[in-house]
Automatic annotation (TrEMBL):
One of its GO terms (molecular function) is glycogen binding. Gene3D superfamilies: Carbohydrate binding type-21 domain (2.60.40.2440). This is PPR3E phosphatase. GO terms for biological process: regulation of glycogen biosynthetic process.
Length: 150
């Protein structure tokens, strides 16, 4: 099975107090992430500054020696607040090794400006851990003993 990605940050920042205010202040914020067999799925909230906008996630598995970027897709209907939009992404990480560390940051381009959410300069980081297989059935030490009837 593919390795499990363990977030080194709270995986549900959108559930923390003051999240809406952080989106208003910084223009873009990670809302949540979830590790799945196909990769890392997540959602981003952005301040609705203009109709035309682009949201993407830039990520690396080798401490930025190389990186890739995937676009995030607009998710209708938007949040009921009328001030923000939600975008969803999937980082395809099926071939990730158990020792890998995934780092990513979110980019929001709108009205000729660019905004980043990089977890206050630390990037969002997830550590790969090998999945532990279900415990093998333990064998009863007496199960191979002969039973003698007298």
């Amino acid at each position: 099975p593919p390795p499990l990605l363990e977030p080194l940050f709270p995986p549900q920042p959108g559930a923390s107090p003051g999240f809406a205010e952080r989106v208003r202040q910084h223009k873009v914020r990670l809302e949540w992430v979830r590790a799945e067999p196909a990769g890392l799925r997540g959602a981003v909230r952005v301040l609705n500054l203009a109709y035309e906008k682009a949201v993407s996630v830039r990520y690396t598995l080798n401490r930025w020696a190389s990186c890739a970027e995937v676009p995030a897709a607009y998710q209708p209907p938007g949040p009921a607040d009328g001030l923000t939009d939600r975008f969803a992404f999937l980082l395809p990480l099926a071939a990730t090794s158990a020792e890998a560390t995934l780092e990513f940051a979110v980019r929001y381009r709108v009205a000729g400006a660019e905004y980043w959410d990089n977890n206050e300069g630390a990037n969002y980081r997830l550590r790969g851990r090998q999945r532990v297989p279900p415990a093998a059935l333990t064998q009863d030490p007496d199960s191979t003993a002969w039973i003698h009837f007298i």
